[in-house]
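Q: What structure does this chain adopt?
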Amino acid sequence: MIINLFFTFLKIGMFSIGGGYAIIPIIQEQVVFKQGWITQKVFTDIITISQMTPGPLAVNTSTFVGMQVAGIEGAISATVGCIISGIIISMFLYGFFKKYKNSKFVFEILNGLKASSLGLIISAGFTIILLTFFGSSNYYTTNIFKNIDIIAVILFCCSLYCLRKYKIGPILMMVLSGLFGLIVYL
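A:
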């Protein structure tokens, strides 16, 4: 299991172009659907916790998944797997981009990667919305609105409004949302 965690997160780290939220669908595909290590609900909880802890989302998520699956050894294995490919690739790309930084070809590659990263981020957001509001990421179901969580929808709308209108920081918003959730869902 430890070795499988390492190689799974090594592969995730290798293909985590865009980082941040763009990596969520890749991690989800591997740990929920392919390996079946955790459920979709647990995955969503891990993503939420990973957002609240300092550090990159992919590293935090790999640590939490590894811990969930195989304890401390799993957390270390998954985390090392996740970061080692990034270190190696970053060292290679640094030299490449330093040498070809003014190339139109490199500029076009980066534009393509930005567009792809945006698609990954939106896909991850869509999955989290479905899980949060409807309790399922399967949008092929005929009656997805049957189990809608109105409180979650209202909290989402209020959070989005406050973040955009009043420029409330994400940490304060997470704390306030957590307190609101504690009061409402208890």
